[in-house]
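User: quick one, fold this
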Amino acid sequence: MSGERVGVYPGTFDPITNGHLDIISRATRVVDRLIVAVAVNAGKEPLFDLDERVAMAREAVADLAHGNGSRIDVQPFDSLLVDFARDCGAGLIVRGLRAVSDFEYEFQMAAMNSRLAPGVETVFLTASERCQFISSRFVKEIGALGGDISGFVPPAVEARVRARYGDGVRQSEAP
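Assistant:
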């Protein structure tokens, strides 16, 4: 589509959290098409393999309201982010910031990406107050120790984490 504003929101998404979904939902307000780019990133030793992470992300974004007319796609990638963005026709990389401590790393990455691909801009969206503390790492740690993660991830992701760790993860308590 001519003139379509395409953005890429990259991450490992191991697993995708409500914090990620908050950024995704808000990013759709500034682009016509958002590509959630699930990185291979084997160096992080993910709990879920790439296909599982892509499937969880696709399922999670399917539940988002698309009232603003934007489209959300989920794709795996294993290349330089700026190359992936250019290949997708994206002019924008979306990065989420939870805290000031995230900014220095993200700022350096944005500067490097700008050098590699001057036509691709990076925008930062700060996490909503209700999501600032959520991270995939904490979700995995809480899940491994049997804690309730229902407030941090979509129900389908909670079920997959519970299945991965066995019955150690407590299900949400009924109201």
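User: anything notable?
Assistant: The first helix runs from residue 18 to 27.
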